[in-house]
Design goal:
Order of helices and strands: EHEHEHEHEH
Shape: globular
CATH topology: Rossmann fold
Number of helices: 5
Helix content: 40-55%
CATH architecture: 3-Layer(aba) Sandwich
CATH class: Alpha Beta
Low-confidence stretches: none
Mean pLDDT: 93
Length: about 130
């Protein structure tokens, strides 16, 4: 069964830190952190998070490629992914396999609501 962990993937250390703080303080979650898609793929395979907040534009393996890889692998295809970008449109994230989208800069209330909703759906799916 999939774990209840959440992963934050972003090449910007300030964004990773902000999201980590928000998740810890508002939802009492300790996210797994990754700074690019390559690291995210390795960590997702090992930790099996139920939700990933995925920056879509990163060096090395970008978030779109990482999303496609996660969704195409039997071991990780059930992981819910919320794509994040300040430059790419929401439809691109959804076409590439993301389950939802959050525009940067974040609206924290929207971010928290989407995380709660997807965690709830992932728990129902795992039950």
């Amino acid at each position: 069964m999939q774990g209840q962990a959440i992963m934050v993937v972003d090449d910007d250390p300030e964004v990773r830190h902000l999201l980590e703080l928000v998740l810890r303080e508002t939802l009492d979650l300790s996210p797994i952190l990754a700074e690019n898609g390559r690291e995210a793929l390795a960590k997702a395979e090992r930790s099996q998070p139920c939700l990933v907040l995925m920056d879509l534009t990163m060096p090395e393996v970008n978030g779109l490629a990482a999303t496609r890889a996660l969704k195409s692998s039997p071991a990780t295809k059930a992981i819910r992914i919320i794509g994040m970008s300040g430059t790419l449109p929401d439809w691109m994230a959804l076409v590439e396999g993301c389950d939802d989208f959050i525009a940067k800069p974040f609206d924290l209330d929207d971010l928290i609501a989407k995380v709660k909703r997807h965690l709830s759906e992932a728990r129902k799916q795992a039950a």
